[in-house]
Amino acid sequence: MNKVSLTRRKFLLSTGIAATGLIVGCSVTRANEIGYSTVAGAFEPNSFIQITSDSEVIFYLPNNEMGQGILDGLTTLIAEELRVEPGAIDVRHAQRHEDYTNPEMGMQATGGSNAVRGQFLPLRQAAANAAAAVRNAAAQQLNVAADKIVLVNGMVDVDGKRYPYGQFASLAATLPVPENATLRSAEQFDQIGRERPRLDALAKSTGTALFGIDAEVDDLLRAVVVRSPVIGASLISFDATEARKQSGVVAVLEIRNGVAVVAESYWQARKAAALVDIQWSKTELSSWSSDTLYEKFVETLNDTSQKGLECCNEGEGGSLLENSAIVAVADYYAPYLAHATMEPMNCTVQIDGDRCAIYVGTQSVQVSAGAAVYYGDFDAGKVAMHPAFLGGGFGRRVIGDDVAEAVVIAKQTGRNIQVVWSREDDMTADFYRPAALVRMQAGVSEQGVIETWAVRRVGPNTMNYVLDEWVDALAPDFLNKRFVNWLSKFPHSLFNRFVADPSSGDGIYTDYDTANKAVYHVTQDPGLRTGFWRSVGNSSNAFFKESFIDELAHRVGMDEVQFRLANMQKNPRLKKATELAAAKANWGQPLPAGHFHGLATHSSFGSAVAQIAEVSIENNTIVVHRVTAAIDCGMVVNPGIVRDQVEGGIIYGLTAALYGEVTLRDGVVQETNFHTYPMLRMAQAPTVDVHIVDSQEHPEGVGEPGLPPIAPAVANAIFKATGQRLRTLPLKLS
């Protein structure tokens, strides 16, 4: 294999050593039998922890860091039980191994805001077992009773005399490791719950943090892929005569989803790619525009002969609507959205005969390695993974299509290849958040009790296109590819005809006490590729639900806070968050002239969030001045990270609420960069106050729950300011 040259940047890549001293990348493979990496002579009590004879503590991080703070959070769990400072731990991305499987996702992947909540007990137990093993080894080696030993800051303390952990590593490796060592109680915590700077802050603020796009290996060529402007179209023919004449161009070749131009530099490849003349097939999507799509959604929504697939049917369902004193009906719409991550999709592949090394920022080591096996025809045991920091994930980087492109090009050329997507590529070839048109119906008593809740939802599914890719990447190696390709189309039939996509009902019926509920989803899919988007179905369903709840409160004539509290008695977490947000925002107290409050609440990923947006209308423009948020996420590992994630979710969600919209013309996505898909700028960002409900309950999700309530909170404030009910995203005044 060509050696990675040892410039500083390349050295950081090849070793994974960041400026903080953290190791954020290591060789990973899809094959379980390869296991996790081993430091010679280290004590390995489990697959997460190693302690060397030099007293170095190594932690193999089972999830990928993409800005959400899990490197810090999970390291803190290890530090708490092992009795070391988090900053003294050498953190490495875990290799592919069944021990690192995400229990909620069923594979080794990061998503669903489940890293800390899923690992809170397992990682603490792993560290506690390791600490007990060190204590037992020290007791035997020093010939003292184990209860005379105190572990403190990576040292064994016996009557005031201290010995480093490494002194006992060799003996500990020969002794049985305890399996259920006693965990520290909340009263004993001195790491969990403590606010401090993030462990990765220095590397990220100094530019030494390693992201996938930073990968550099010797003899590296760059590749640009020309994809169909209409997603899903097939290549008929292409003429690369002019492209091949351009300086630096090494190859032009057909791959699974387009034409790849390989050159000595990115810009050479990009310029040559613009000269390739390609003929594409026509698809169903080619006949769609945003207007015709919406018209079809309306037609389907009104066609009650299409019942749809059941997301929820409790009590008497929606049959009692007309029995209520007040019956309300309203339709809402949310468009397709792009991910728009700061780091565009990219992957670097280093070839050595029948082996390859993959350098990539990924949400799933397993899927990425599987893509290399399936599309690159590499043996599973000959694929080495080098995960890096992700410059934003939001669900986009769990799919593996970037790896699939890179390995195919590398395999065909026999060269080291880096594929980099442009911003335009990212915007026009995304796996988008599905659009949805929803009819909300409710029956409410004169006293303000929601008696019946009924929802009819029309739009594409989230899972279909993701599972297409996952089936290929995760299929056992012994299966015939033709069979796997047939199998990958099964999700479309499953979620279109038999089972409601789980994200369709995300959060749209679960927050309030209503006994009679019915939610149905009718699949309407023009063929535009869809996938996970931050908070998944909750991102649009919260807008539908909380805007409608606000309408119900006004119909009844109740205060919006009191109406919600009266109908969420069985949801204590959301009730606490709502009460805290209202108190901190001084709900009901006078605001500056022309300013108005809007409220929204929502539970997702185990956490409950309430947000109050302070809004004014200036020159017919929506201005959000302040957002007061409260979250009940159970026990908090690092309060600073919780506040950061809620604030980040609000800003990301506010961008979508005010500007986010992917539109189609003849099947082609019209938004190509930030000039047509604008993001919230610093000068437009509101002051955000985040308050955390004090709780000793099990930790819950934090990365995504801050996003869903912001759009309806702003919409509800706009109603107070203008009398306009804005039922379509993005929010636009008439």
- Mean pLDDT score: 93
The CATH superfamily of the largest domain appears as: Aldehyde oxidase/xanthine dehydrogenase, molybdopterin binding domain
Just name the CATH architecture of the largest domain: 2-Layer Sandwich
By CATH reckoning, the class of the largest domain would read Alpha Beta
The biggest beta sheet reads: 7 strands, mixed
Strand order of the largest sheet: 9-10-7-17-14-15-16
Quaternary state of the chains: single chain
Our estimate of the beta-strand percent is 15-25%
* Helicity range: 25-40%
Low-confidence stretches: 1-35
* CA-atom Rg in angstroms: 27 Å
> What's the domain count?
3
CATH topology of the largest domain, by name, is Aldehyde Oxidoreductase, domain 4
Commentary on this structure:
The chain is α+β, with helices and mostly antiparallel strands and 734 residues long. The chain has three domains: 17-206, 2-Layer Sandwich (Aldehyde Oxidoreductase, domain 4); 212-227 and 234-281 and 345-420, Aldehyde Oxidoreductase, domain 4, CATH 3.30.365.10; 292-337 and 433-462 and 501-722, Aldehyde oxidase/xanthine dehydrogenase, molybdopterin binding domain (Aldehyde Oxidoreductase, domain 4). A hairpin with a 2-residue loop joins strand 22 (607-618) and strand 23 (621-632). It is built from 19 helices and 26 strands. The strands form seven sheets. A seven-stranded mixed β-sheet has the order 9-10-7-17-14-15-16. Strands 12-20-19-18-13 form a five-stranded mixed β-sheet.
